[in-house]
Amino acid sequence: MADNPNDLHEHKGMSRRTFMKNTGLVAGGVVGGGLIGGLLTNQLQQKPEVQTATDNGQIQDARVFFSRGQDFDILAAATERIYPKDDSGPGAIELGVPYFIDKQLSTEWGVNAKEYMKGPFAVYTTNTGNHNITKDQNKQGPNAETQVPAPTPRYQTKMTRSEIFVTGLRELDNVAQKEFGASFVKITGEQQDEVLRMFEDGKVELKGIGSKNFFNMLLQTTLEGAYADPVYGGNKNMMGWKMKEYPGPRASYAAQIEVEEFVKLDQQSLRNYQGH
Amino acid sequence: MVTKLEKVDVVVVGTGWAGGVVSAELAKAGYKVVALERGKNQTRDDYIGVKDELRYTNRYEMMQNLSSETITSRNNLDEVALPVRTRKEMMAGNDLGGGSVHWAGASYRWKPYDFEIRSKTIERYGKAKIPEGMTIQDWGITYDEMEKYYDRWEKTAGISGEPDPLGPDRSSDYPNPPMKESPPIKLFKEGAKKLGLHPFQVPAGNLSQGYTNPDGEVMNACMYCAFCTQYGCDFGAKSDPLVTVLPTAQKTGNFEARVGSYVRRVLYKNGKATGVLYVNTLTGEEFEQPADVVVLAAFTFTNNRLLLLSGIGKPYDPKTRKGVIGRNYNGQFGITFLGARGYFEDKKFNYYAGAGALGGAVGDYAGDNFDHTNVDFINGGGIEMRQYGKGAIASNHVPSGTPGWGADYKKKSLHYTYRSLVVWYTSANMAWWHNYVDLDPTYKDDYGDPLLRITFKYTDQDRNIAKFGIEKSREILEAMGADIIDEDQVPEEFDHVYDGGHYAGGVIMGTDPSTSAVNNYLQMWDAENIFVVGAANFPQFAGHHPTETVGALAYRAAEGIEKYLKEGGPLVARKEVSTHV
Ligand SMILES: Cc1cc2nc3c(=O)[nH]c(=O)nc-3n(C[C@H](O)[C@H](O)[C@H](O)COP(=O)(O)OP(=O)(O)OC[C@H]3O[C@@H](n4cnc5c(N)ncnc54)[C@H](O)[C@@H]3O)c2cc1C
Ligand code: SF4
């Protein structure tokens, strides 16, 4: 994908060499079967230079889902409150999170293409339960603070995720107007937090969805935008991963798995991994 | 128009471990086998270069497309069930190899106690220990009889492990040594030992070394790449049907796997199946595949649904507590796998690395390994500390009390990324008269067929065993030196999330045709040429992961099918006994 050239272009200080550094470690982990030899060799034939950065700057940062600029601005402001810039690094906006979300909403996920969307639909307002609890790879594992007991299966609205987003963002603005007499993007950060908290606590009536569900979706997609592979438009320059010291996808971590100390590796993206 | 195809010896619905093992064994024995798989073909090539957390972990790339079919769910008999609409809440395998490809690989044998739970509980604690309404029952097969099938499956899959010091007898060692001991696993084992427990390495379907299985299939050593559970393995290092039983079946020349083939009915006449009806999902064409034997190996939901849709076997009715299909629905839901998360200020683990089944385990509180006289539940569960390896989106845990977003959250989630570990209890789930499946009266699939409806609720047994497990998990984390320990909360009620693939029952095995659907060869009591294979056979759920038992049962079924093809007739005599309900 052509995402990275532009991303890299931004950070002039970054050394391209870093992408190659760790392949030695990977090779060190290779043992066993003939099949795997060939396989890994393929995977390791990565070109050291990711690409030559073209001079098109942030050419991919444009809306493809939200038609109203205003909706997008509300989204951007809200994500930045959820994941703010601080001394550890960039916030949601700088990471490209709003564009990530914009792009996601026109995917099959955004239009619920692979979900069961046949009626009849039970209409709930605030009572749908939390259909977007944060679940990690340890799925059923401890995340009790986000587990809201639900009286029914969680997602019971006729609305798709993209429709939920548009509705929810506009309601953020309505509530800002009502509470603070100005648009969400115009009120102070603390006031924005207050509005977001009202959604988080389910205090806002959001028909068919429940404001808590919208909030959780916003929270989850903000984190995804900060930490998903940069190919999706967020995690600019792998800055999210850098803050997290997350190395990205690799063929092997066999060389690190038994090491006592934390092994800090340079970041590699899917693009590197696929050998482009 | 339905096109009638040429008859084969055996038609198998589903290509996961259950369908794969049966297909391989019968094709090897010289029978013509056709396996029908609703999803697409997939090979290892589909997984090379796609280690993408968003796509696979968060967007469920490998899970069933629910747009046509899902399940509906409710807690109580008098409620209206609603569809479980999203893949976040409903994860089931869909393509060649099924859920057996995107599984994690944790592989446990179940215990002698599990197979004879009713008799053994009464023997040790008296009848009163089993509460009214709990419909647990013996399987009609013992661990000793299952042992050779376990052994066979472990060798096919190349399981890497060391024996559980408190586990059941084994006829031979694991075919491969345990996986590497990472620092978190070491810490877990040391902690457990301090408490006098008996830790061991989780037996893994991620291979610790290169291996050739008895069928000649070659597997490779695991790379600890961490893109494992919910992913296919790009190294052929995870035990799955794609690198084992399916190629074994293929090599015989007697086997065909037909993908894009969605089975809608088992065709049934005069007490016997004549074949199955399926539709090509790409063209919409309908086919009839006649066969001498029909094997349902399409995972719990479809196995139940196809029997109900086809009118085979007597559906279970919770009001009268009679009937069998749909009875004793069970599984490991949100209330299992609870425990605690420990935060370690002075440690920083390389937790971006890991593997699906890499971990440490303790069996001291599993099954009936401990005295239940003074606890308010029966059975138990394994305790595990797993190192799945975390993606960046998944690793944002913060100690409770920290705000869930904003500046403080960001700071703490970055700080704790590599500083927390989870210990959990994989507790058992007992069967109850009110937990069952039937067909939904309202919701339908694309073809107009009713969805499967699940009625399931938690009981005091579930809540009490969960509480116990959380305490034990906390004790281990304390012994490991965690600075902050967050315990899971015990949920009051089942939340309709079906995300772990551990759903079972409904077509259960037993000795009595009035309380079981299949005999101990997994042959239906009511149709001698239909065999149903998978977790649907479990009368209740043991306190360990299910798949090794599914694999072992599949070897048992294959033996039975071969016997049936040679001799015909019921393989086990009907023995009608009126038992409890
Ligand atoms: C994320 C995840 C992790 C897991 N990890 C573990 C673990 O660590 N340890 C463990 O023991 N278990 C684990 N499991 C459970 C494990 O995946 C299952 O127990 C196992 O795969 C069951 O095998 P099976 O052959 O019965 O079903 P499957 O492998 O799912 O195969 C069933 C097949 O039938 C097909 N099918 C269904 N309906 C139809 C139809 N109408 N027509 C045609 N084909 C149909 C499906 O597409 C599927 O391919 C996990 C599950 C999940 C989801
Ligand atoms: S962790 Fe091991 S078994 Fe799992 S996908 Fe990676 S290499 Fe394969």
From TrEMBL, chain A:
InterPro entries: Gluconate_2DH_su3, TAT_signal, TAT_signal_bac_arc. Signal peptide: none annotated. This is Gluconate 2-dehydrogenase subunit 3 family protein. It comes from Sporosarcina quadrami. It comes from the Bacteria. NCBIfam families: TAT_signal_seq. Residues 132-151 are annotated as: Disordered.
UniProtKB/TrEMBL annotation, chain B:
It holds the Pfam family GMC_oxred_C. Gene3D superfamilies: FAD/NAD(P)-binding domain. Transmembrane segments: none annotated. The keyword Nucleotidyltransferase does not apply. Keywords: FAD, Flavoprotein, Oxidoreductase. The keyword Flavoprotein applies. Coiled coil: none annotated. Residues 142-329 form the Glucose-methanol-choline oxidoreductase N-terminal domain. Residues 158-181 are annotated as: Disordered. Residues 435-554 form the Glucose-methanol-choline oxidoreductase C-terminal domain. It comes from the Bacteria. Belongs to the GMC oxidoreductase family. This is GMC family oxidoreductase. It comes from Sporosarcina quadrami. The lineage of its organism: Bacteria, Bacillati, Bacillota, Bacilli, Bacillales.
